[in-house]
């Protein structure tokens, strides 16, 4: 049974969400303050966190940034606004997905299950990709660049592995989105773009003119195999 941490200060919505998720086979712990999250996670294993943006003590964006610096658990953010601005901020801070409130319970459950499936995917055999100074080990889920370990979230790792295992091939945004998010690309969702940007930053790519993970305009993304030194 997967354990979910629900951080929501609307006690009525908190109880309704908790009851629905528990009735669908999930274990749910709840907090109603943002400044209690980090200490809770330090002491209690959690498989996924549902995080509201507007919280007392510390807002959801600040919590997401703090948690992501240390923990790789999936983070699903709840926002009362449908504006791209809020969604992009959450993704840039390391959230894995977002749902706009009020969330349809079945949609929320589907998003949770999709994140859990990707996070719990088992590795059947040792696999490793090496490109010059870059080493991507799928067994240990460790990435090293010039022997320095690079910290990636679980979904950043999956995206890097997808691009790197298809090095030299342009992968369409639609293909990447379907593979990573599990739903059809609607032309507006910035999730994949934000994750690519975060990976570039962590791997020392040029954000203005990327040469390691390129954006081929009108086509998709290209992982350049000979752009990693040595």
UniProtKB/TrEMBL annotation:
Gene Ontology CC annotations of this record: cytosol; protein-DNA complex
MF GO annotations: phosphorelay response regulator activity; transcription cis-regulatory region binding
Chief subcellular location: cytoplasm
Pfam families: Response_reg (PF00072), Trans_reg_C (PF00486)
Presence of keyword S-adenosyl-L-methionine: no
DNA-binding region positions on the chain: 126-225
Location(s), subcellular: Cytoplasm
4-aspartylphosphate: residues bearing it: 52
Tagged with keyword Transcription: yes
Key words, A-Z: Cytoplasm, DNA-binding, Phosphoprotein, Transcription, Transcription regulation, Two-component regulatory system
GO biological process: regulation of DNA-templated transcription
CDD domains attached to this UniProt entry: trans_reg_C (cd00383)
Domain OmpR/PhoB-type positions: 126-225
Residue span(s) of domain Response regulatory: 3-116
Protein name, per record: Response regulator
Organism: Pseudoalteromonas arctica
